[in-house]
UniProtKB/TrEMBL annotation:
Protein name (Swiss-Prot/TrEMBL): LemA
Family: Belongs to the LemA family.
Keyword terms: Membrane, Transmembrane, Transmembrane helix
Pfam families: LemA (PF04011)
InterPro entries: LemA-like_dom_sf (IPR023353), MamQ_LemA (IPR007156)
A GO cellular component annotation in the UniProt record: membrane
Membrane disposition: Single-pass membrane protein
């Protein structure tokens, strides 16, 4: 009888430990998903600013139609990348698609702002100044949200890989989450576009 009570106590302790590990993994997964939601909010704001920026520039950049079209196309690709990542935050393929699309959009926006430098009337336009200021502010918010997301992903991945939690993670399909990074070969995209008036 004493042996049975000891065995029962041991089973209860193991069950409570397993439940605690499982709940910790769920909390960590929810934390990185919530952090991704903050990126989603900031990128949506960025996507809303871009058509206004293009419309403001369109009147001045009549000879730069290709640049404007590149920005609109990159925005569409970035929105598709965000949609894929939103459906599965942390999925390596979705994060890679989002990262590549954001890199293309950063490049297109950078080219637009460089071209805008050559047009003094456009640089002095009040709408253009306000939109570029809002875009720069949004870029900073995206960077902060991305850092918070990456920190949450790292905490989740560490939690799921550490023994003995890894036993629970592997048995209940807590898959590794991918960081959101900017392509390393495009170092100029690591910073928000610089706007000078």
């Amino acid at each position: 009888m004493v042996g049975f009570m000891i065995l029962l106590g041991l089973v209860i302790v193991i069950a409570l430990w397993a439940v605690g590990q499982y709940n910790g993994l769920v909390a960590a997964r929810n934390a990185f998903r919530n952090a991704f939601a903050q990126i989603d909010v900031q990128l949506q704001r960025r996507f809303e600013l871009i058509p206004n920026l293009v419309e403001t520039a369109k009147g001045y950049l009549t000879h730069e139609r290709e640049t404007l079209e590149a920005v609109i196309a990159a925005r569409g690709a970035a929105m598709a990348g965000l949609s894929a990542a939103h459906a599965s935050p942390g999925d390596p393929a979705a994060m890679a698609q989002l990262s590549a699309a954001q890199g293309q959009l950063n490049g297109a926006l950078g080219r637009l702002l460089v071209v805008a430098e050559a047009y003094p009337d456009l640089k002095a336009n009040q709408n253009m100044m306000q939109l570029t200021e809002e875009l720069t502010s949004t870029e900073n918010k995206v960077a902060f949200a991305r850092q918070a997301y990456n920190d949450s992903v790292m905490a989740y991945n560490n939690r799921r890989e550490v023994f003995p939690a890894s036993l629970i993670a592997n048995n209940f399909r807590f898959l590794p989450a991918a960081l959101l990074d900017i392509p390393a070969d495009k170092a100029q995209m690591r910073e928000a576009p610089q706007v000078r008036f």
